[in-house]
Amino acid sequence: MLLSYLIEHNRYLNIVGIGLIIAVAVACSKNRKAIDFKLVLHALGLQFLIALAVLKTTVGQTILGGVSGAIARIYQFADQGSSFIFGQLVDASGPWGFIFAVKVLPVIIFFGALMALLFYWGIVQKLVLAINWLVQPLLGTTGAETLCAIANSFLGQTEAPLLVRDYLRVMTKSELFVVMVSGMGTISGAILVVFAAMGVPAPHLLTASVMAIPATIMLAKIIIPEEKTSAQTEQVTVVMQSSASNMFDAIAAGTLDGLSLALNVGAMLIAFIALISLFNALLHYGSDMVNALLAMLNVVWRLPSVDLQLIFSYLFAPFALLLGFTGQTALDVGGLLGTKVAINELIAYQNMVALNLPERVVDVVTYALCGFSNFSCIGIQIGGIGALIPERRGWLTELGIYAVFAAALSNLLSAMIASLLL
Predict the structure, then answer these.
(1) pTM flag (> 0.85)
(2) Phi-psi region of 212 (alpha: psi -120 to 50; beta: other; left: phi over 0)
(3) Buried (b) or exposed (e) across 342-372, using 16+ Cβ within 10 A?
């Protein structure tokens, strides 16, 4: 019975894939001796439990649906302010489609004001302490990094750090890496709605984002293990009080911080996407030059047009095989994974929908693509988190590539586990 189940859809390869992902992360660890394998086992077990609860029980699906609805309301509130300035451009269903500058950047401004107000009231501090009390015995992570990892599964990678903005400065490199990886390994509620409207299965999008919480923490702690303790892990009381004189002062300060954050994100995104396009153009030019030389030598074979997408599709093709796919489907899935890392998940999901893949393939691939793990997001985090802690921008630039790598592995890990259960 079990054997036939594992053979069906090549599920036995998923088990191999789970082991391989963890092995790859361990091999790339900055300090393998410092890895907390108890945390690894607990996080992996928690990820399986989340998948079972959501994919196999109606209670889990109902709870996640309620949370998703609440988050969607927050973005609707932000749209109310945006529509006053931008009018109909806020409506992504119009002929102009989804405009990042109109739909996402204003949310950062609104959320900056909201979080400053909640911090003034002391709500954020209580959340940090409560989550630290609940999760510390299980994973051994601090309240601030865990809260940010959880928030990233529903909020954006620039909004979630605002929850713990006053804790960022005292974080260790390992804790900050969790913030980065969890931001890249998940998608925001606003983007989730956009993907669902494109035809991507919403329940699997939401499940994937929640499953990424323990996955991103685990892989972040494997690659950049905790080597020293911060004030939080030493359980020294970190007194964080708002400097605002009243709630309106807090709102004003938060709005200005959010504006600065939004401008940084927009500028970094423009620069990084432009540079990626430039690099792809150079690769295309190199391919053309090689083919011209082959033609001069009367060689029939031609080099395909090389770009980052093609390179990463070949790199990720083995993972497509470990997801249980074969033949052309494996090549298609490898291409989608490469598109997600080299460009972004939006284009990857668009291509997935256009391919008209079988339902189960779409469901599994949804998990593998469900994250902001691409090169342009390095720029977003440098601009976003770097604006909050400019003295740590060096760490952000140093860890950017590692964060993309760890987040991509976390998405693949979720896909392997989901494939075992679907």
Answers:
(1) no
(2) alpha
(3) bbbbbebbbbbeeeebeeebbbbbbbbbbbb
Q: Show the tokens assigned to 56.
A: 């196999």
| Residue 306, Ramachandran bin (φ over 0: left; ψ between -120 and 50: alpha; else beta) | beta
Burial of 53 (0-12, 13-18, 19+ CB in 10 A): middle
Q: Which residue has the tokens 């990626």?
A: 276
Structure tokens at 349: 């999901």
Q: What is the pLDDT along the chain (422 residues), one digit of tens a residue?
A: 778 888 887 888 999 999 999 999 999 998 888 888 888 999 999 899 888 888 878 887 787 677 667 766 777 788 888 888 888 888 777 777 777 788 777 877 887 788 788 878 887 767 666 766 776 677 878 777 888 888 777 666 777 787 777 788 888 888 889 989 998 998 876 677 667 767 788 778 888 888 888 899 999 999 999 876 655 544 444 445 667 788 889 889 888 877 877 787 678 678 777 887 898 899 989 988 988 888 888 888 888 888 877 787 778 788 889 998 888 888 889 888 888 887 778 778 878 888 888 889 999 999 999 988 887 788 888 887 888 888 888 888 888 889 999 999 999 999 999 999 88
What is the C-alpha to C-alpha distance for residues 143 and 133, in angstroms, rounded to an integer? 7
- What is each CA distance from 24 to 179, 180, 219, 283, in whole angstroms? 21, 19, 10, 28
Measured CA to CA in angstroms, residue 245 lies from 117, 249, 284 at distances of 11, 6, 57
The domain locations on the chain are 10-421
Residue with tokens 């790199």: 315
Cβ burial, residue 228 (10 Å; 0-12/13-18/19+): exposed
Q: How long is the chain?
A: 422
